[in-house]
What we know:
By secondary structure, the chain is an alpha+beta fold. Among the domains are: 126-198, no CATH class; 208-358, Alpha-Beta Plaits (2-Layer Sandwich). The chain has twelve helices and seven strands. The strands form two sheets. The protein has a five-stranded mixed sheet, with helices on both faces. Strands 4-5 form a two-stranded antiparallel ribbon. Helix 10 (248-265) packs antiparallel against helix 11. The protein is extended and about 100 Å long. Its EC number is 2.7.7.65. One of its GO terms (biological process) is cell adhesion involved in single-species biofilm formation. Keywords: Membrane, Nucleotidyltransferase, Transferase, Transmembrane, Transmembrane helix. GO terms for molecular function: diguanylate cyclase activity.
Amino acid sequence: MGTHTNVVKAVLDSRVDAGIIRTDVLEKMQEDNLISLSDIKVLNTKKHSDFPFLVSTELYPEWILAKTPHTSEYLTNEVLSTLLKLSTRPKTNQEFRLTTPIDNSKVHALMKEFNIYPYQKEPYTFIDALLKYKYFFLGLFIPFIMAIFFIMHIQRLNKKLREHAIEIENFNATLEHEVEERTHQLTLLNSKLKELANTDELTRIDNRRHFFLLATQYFYSSKRNNLELYIFSLDIDLFKQVNDTYGHAIGDEVLKSFCHTIKEIIRQSDLFGRIGGEEFCICIQNTTLEGATTLAEKIRESIQNTTTIVGTQELPKITVSIGISSIQKGDNEIFDIIKRSDEALYRAKRNGRNQVQIILK
């Protein structure tokens, strides 16, 4: 019906028996003298502590940020990062303060249950397969037609079959060699495509999607085997000033140098991924809190003391703030740990940057 207000009016006008609206709509309409709450019955009324509005379902958190489909992931993360940074140092006349988003897993579960984007499941038909693999089917059809004409030609030239037997054998050998060569090329191409799909193009470390995929596997392995697992949230301090002062080309070199330094320190079994912009995550297993803290301090000191020269130009010095959290018994997914490590990171930012902060629970 266009708006939630129209839904309420339709119920009151008896055009429909019941309607679904978001919380606070009824209270706002009564405040505007559009309705009286005494005229309305809320089905399946529930109570939630510290929640003042009428509600009949579980509470679902609102998204901290929404984007249109054509907006890039990079731009979205940049905007969100900027809003969070503004909130860590609010001005006296600032009317808003953005806090760390609460757990949205309930919303994701609801979207999966109702097959809402991006979890919708559409049937895969023969037409879909035909359109997707049209060149493959065309490639099969053409050899099929050629084979028919070839058989007809063989029948006409049956008397000359013996004379051409050696030539045909040579042709088959050549064809087999070409097939093996093409198969090898396809194998190399598939390997390259897999690497491109899982790797951040600039820094050559795991991209956001692949890091979360591997970290989720580490999470369930740690839960099953009762192993320690730690998440580091890293953010380069004042990286925007580097881009504004030296340009994005130098900023890209700084990011590559930053990742190279960390890769030289962490173990081969440790996961290291770029989450967005200048934000990174590390996932480590089989270590103690003391070991994780020591590793984080080693990374922080190495970044602070690293000097990199590209061509003839020395890159600007940078520092990094790091937040640490570990797996807990009540955690249901890897994002529960990441949420706490992000909170520890913001604490490090608020306390002056270039430091390590820990939040375990």
